[in-house]
Specification:
The chain is α/β, with parallel strands linked by helices. It is built from 3 helices and 5 strands. The chain has a single domain, classed as 3-Layer(aba) Sandwich (Rossmann fold), CATH 3.40.50. Helix content is about 45%, strand content about 20%. The strands form 2 sheets. The protein has a 3-stranded parallel beta sheet, sandwiched between helices. It is globular, with a radius of gyration of 12 Å.
Length: about 80
């Protein structure tokens, strides 16, 4: 599982996630967005772009742990594996 901030220096989190998904070696890894951008349209854009989940800051611990559990199950099952 990759935890990705949306606002990265030099590249957007969305663009970085797209690059991860283009590489056959990493394309199956769930990428979870972490962002202070809590506007519903920003969340929708992130999910449409391909993030596995989109969490907003400040992080709610229970939501974060549940997201990690689901993402790990997804990764371990090979769901969405493109290789």
């Amino acid at each position: 599982v990759i935890l990705m901030d949306i606002n990265l220096p030099g590249i957007s989190g969305i663009e970085a996630m797209r690059l991860i998904h283009l590489d056959p070696i990493t394309s199956h890894i769930p990428v979870v967005a972490l962002s202070a951008n809590a506007i519903p349209r920003d969340i929708e854009k992130g999910l449409e772009a391909g993030f596995f989940r989109y969490l907003t800051k400040p992080i709610k611990v229970n939501e974060f742990l549940e997201t990690l559990n689901v993402a790990l199950e997804h990764a371990e099952s090979g769901a969405g594996r493109k290789v």
